[in-house]
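Handoff note, outgoing to incoming analyst
You'll be picking up this chain. Sequence as last confirmed:
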Amino acid sequence: MKLLKNIRYLFLTVFLSLAISQAFAHPVHVSLLNIELSEDGKWQLVVKLFMDDFENILNQKYACEIKINPNTNFDKLKTYGTLYVKEHMGFKVNNNPLELDYQFKKFKTNHEAVWLYFEVDTGIKITKGLEIENSLMCDQFDDQTNLLILDFKGKQYAHKFDCSKQNYVLDVNS
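Most recent structure output, in case you need it:
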């Protein structure tokens, strides 16, 4: 029951943040990471970011002159979006660090957000635990909040990262 309340709180935070951002240049800095883990090591990741912030950080870090919209060059966003995500997210499975090969599948946009869709095949069964590091956009905003919704073995887990607390550990045996 407490988990359900936490998930509701996270979604409420995201939706309020988006509603506020519709009225003003968004004064909050928030991202959403949704991860679906299968027991055979295949993962689906969806990253949602404010589009203007993501464009700014890509252009600053990589001088790629990207403008995200439905007609954005897929290969360009794939290259720089994947590079950024890979630099700012880390994973350990069963206490072993992973070097993931992110497969960028697609992106979607709406008024102010971009969704990046990735697939990863780790080939590793999670038997002990999973550690996630998420520092997305912390190199641009000190007040960045990164929300996580994690689906694993029919259960949903939620966590809130910020720039001072960038790690989350899921113990699958508890």
